[in-house]
Design goal:
alpha/beta; five-stranded parallel beta sheet; two-stranded antiparallel sheet; 45% helix; 12% strand
Length: 284
């Protein structure tokens, strides 16, 4: 990846993280930890990878994305806002009664959201259905992406969807799993270990890569490998090892930040750190 592209992606990732903090602070609720761990993924997806048009959100030929771990809506909303689907200034209205930005994605109110999600395990099923429709009925050039959490894949429905995707040879489907190691009740390995995830995915008929999900060079390799594997009649799975709360010092690897908002003091610390990180990127 050339330096200008990486600088652009690093800049958007920092802005997306700032949007996550702004929105959860404004809501006095929400899920910052898993949104922050996936911020680099969101930056690459929306600013390098996907064929989408903020001026035409329902464009038929667009790629699709389903946030299966729907509680990480702050990360998705922030990416959509910086992409131009709606004003960045609306992010602090997250979860407000009169806001279109509710706690989980709503395809009926939020431009750029392709599927309403929130009940864990269901998003990947919707994505698999979209991929089947695109491949067999619509346009095989359309790629469908979905993001799950490592806690989420404890849901049995996830594996039914994996089996469906392999059976129908959905090589236009790319499944990302954000493995930050923590879920609401504690470390995933203690609550209900899903390991070895890579072996399970291969057993269910997937092509598989394991990457550092907070590294843009690694993300680029994964997306490129997905495109190169198209035509091979297998869905593609990417296991992203990430840091929960990435980018905010006191949130990193802390399970308590799975589902709570920063107070005023914590907000100021987080925004100060993120502004400094953005300034360093832009000055480089």
């Amino acid at each position: 990846m050339d330096n200008n592209t990486k600088k652009m992606l690093l800049s958007y990732a920092a802005k997306i993280r700032m949007g996550i903090i702004e929105s959860t602070y404004g809501a006095k609720a929400g899920h910052p930890g898993g949104s922050l761990s996936a911020a680099d993924f969101f930056a690459y997806l929306y600013f390098k990878e996907m064929n989408v048009d903020p001026k035409n959100p329902k464009m038929e030929s667009r790629d699709r994305f389903v946030l299966s771990k729907g509680h990480c809506a702050p990360g998705l909303y922030s990416a959509l806002a910086y992409k131009g689907f709606f004003p960045v200034e609306d992010l602090p209205t997250l979860r407000h009664i009169d806001s279109y930005l509710q706690g989980h994605p709503n395809m009926n109110t939020v431009p750029g959201v392709d599927m309403s999600t929130g009940s864990l395990g269901q998003g990947i099923s919707a994505a698999a259905g979209m991929a089947k429709g695109a491949k067999y009925m619509q346009n095989n050039d359309i790629s469908v992406y979905t993001l799950l959490g490592d806690g989420e894949i404890e849901e049995g429905q996830v594996w039914e969807a994996m089996m469906f995707a392999a059976h129908y040879k959905l090589d236009n489907l790319c499944v990302f799993i954000d493995c930050n190691g923590l879920q609401i009740d504690g470390p995933c390995g203690e609550v209900m270990s899903a390991q070895p995830i890579d072996e399970k995915l291969r057993a269910f008929g997937f092509e598989v890569m394991v990457i550092d999900g907070n590294d843009f060079d690694e993300l680029e390799k994964a997306f490129n490998a997905f495109h190169q594997a198209k035509g091979g009649a297998k869905p593609f799975g990417v296991i992203m090892n990430t840091v929960k709360g990435k980018g905010v010092s006191y949130m990193e690897n802390q399970v308590g930040w799975h589902g709570k908002a920063p107070n005023t003091e914590e907000y100021e610390i987080a925004m100060s750190e993120l502004r400094a990180a953005l300034a360093e990127i832009e000055e480089a």
